């Protein structure tokens, strides 16, 4: 990985995948700890869910403000700066004394947690078209491993150290990642010379030049929103009867992502010829999962929740890979900006899903959460079918 024109080696891809996972994990640490955060400030589960929403909205803002710079300045310098900002934001969150400050610091964590979305376009630009789906699948595995790490480890450490202790540990992990980037991340080639304002305005031009970019982004955002309906409400629901789970026990649900991680590379290979089928199967799997979750309270059967979590993760992953593989091939000289548009809409969808799920679960319990997720899965699936039929 000496220049951006070299072919990406298998070792490079694995290293970048690990970096993606560790950097994105900071955007998900709070999800398994929402009951702990809510108890600290005596707020309801619906209000505690705003922490996850603030983080994801911050992530979307960070994507919009910083990822386009990957086409303009050295990616290595940009990633290091973001990681340093993430360390500061995590420590701010760990030391804050009010719920309002937690919301602002969580948004700051999200803004600075977007390094993976700078790494991925750079990697895809160094891969032959026929291998892009497989490499993107590997990167998606790294991202999923980061989510698994965040939800599972934060559930355990949050139980033992408290949520403030978990954020402090996360800051320490970020320092190690920053040192690794400093030591190993090579210089990249700058592809454009646009000023920052022109760079941001060019995002709108990309949407005008590629109408399918907006449609793919919307489809991805709807299914990611459905996934976050589940994760935004899960810890709070499991803390209530008939389950009565601790943060540690709820965090173990994150292990359901292992199946998706194992399947990501295979799903990535299928995107080249079976994009529409992947979208339909993904949306269908999520719909079945949410229907099952509607009975989770009455059944009080944890294997049902685990199976549903696995299907939701797989469904979202298949949908994301199908759409993101297509958009990253649209304009090679603007790959960072294309990814900016896709992932910004994607995480806005996730933020809305977190808020929607927490509110629905707070008022209507498991059936409310299940209905909210099923609606997003249906709309996302129908949009994907309409999009691919237009092509």
Q: What profile does the largest beta sheet have?
A: none
Q: CATH first level: which class? A: Mainly Alpha
Query: What name does CATH use for the topology?
Result: Growth Hormone, Chain: A
Give me the Rg, rounded.
Answer: 19 Å
**Strand proportion:** under 5%
The helix/strand order is HHHHHHHHHHHHHH
Shape: globular
What would you give as the CATH superfamily? MFS general substrate transporter like domains
Determine the number of helices (DSSP H or I, runs of at least 4 residues): 14
Instruction: List the domain count as a whole number.
Output: 1
Strand-pairing-aware structural class: mainly alpha
C-alpha end-to-end distance: 35 Å
Stretches with pLDDT under 50, minimum 5 residues = 1-5
Task: Give the % helix.
Answer: over 70%
Which architecture would the CATH scheme give at its second level?
Answer: Up-down Bundle
How many strand units?
Answer: 0
How do the helices and strands line up, and which of them pair or pack?
Blueprint: H1 10-25, H2 34-40, H3 45-66, H4 75-95, H5 99-111, H6 116-124, H7 132-184, H8 196-209, H9 211-238, H10 247-251, H11 257-293, H12 296-299, H13 302-328, H14 335-390
Key traits:
391 residues; mainly alpha; globular; disordered N terminus
Report on the architecture of this protein.
The protein is mainly alpha-helical and about 400 residues long. It has one domain: Growth Hormone, Chain: A. It has 14 helices and no strands. The longest helix is centred in the last third of the chain and has 56 residues. The chain is globular and about 55 Å long. The two termini are about 35 Å apart. The relative contact order is 0.16. The N terminus is likely disordered.
